[in-house]
């Protein structure tokens, strides 16, 4: 069962822990997306995501956002779940929004979490009713 994620809870816990919880969020979200997508040919190592994000001072997290966004879009399309955003949408929000005190990055993650929750609901319902 894939758990529901709340953007505001993630945001507040990240602020309280000085960003450490944000890496935990990325790790767990990557694992859950890997589980939902199965063998789609785009497996992402969750530990590598955190490590590369730290090493590159967050630049890798933009690439991760793009890749996971595309994976979620493909999964949503295959399962008839509405998802308007693609990886490019998240990336544009993150890059352009970083010029506005990082607000765009928060919007990108909000949209990612919102779409993730919709897809996770469909994924959980599939296993619950089968």
How are the SSEs placed, and which strands pair?
Elements: H1 7-16, H2 20-37, H3 46-55, H4 59-78, H5 87-97, H6 103-129
Account of the protein in words:
With 130 residues, this protein is an all-alpha fold. It has one domain (7-129). Helix content is 74%, strand content 0%. It has helices at residues 7-16, 20-37, 46-55, 59-78, 87-97, 103-129. Helix 2 (20-37) packs antiparallel against helix 3, helix 2 packs parallel to helix 4 and helix 4 packs parallel to helix 6 (103-129). The mean pLDDT is 93.
Oligomer, anyone?
single chain
Which term fits the overall shape? Answer: globular
Q: Structurally, how many domains make up the residues?
A: 1
Mean pLDDT: 93
Structural class: mainly alpha
Detail the poorly predicted runs. none
Q: What's the SSE pattern?
A: HHHHHH
Q: Report the portion of residues in β strands.
A: under 5%
Radius of gyration of CA atoms, rounded to a whole number: 14 Å
Distance between the termini: 13 Å
Number of strands: 0
Largest sheet: none
Summarize the structure.
The chain is mainly α.
Index terms:
single chain; 130 residues; mainly alpha; 6 helices; 74% helix; globular
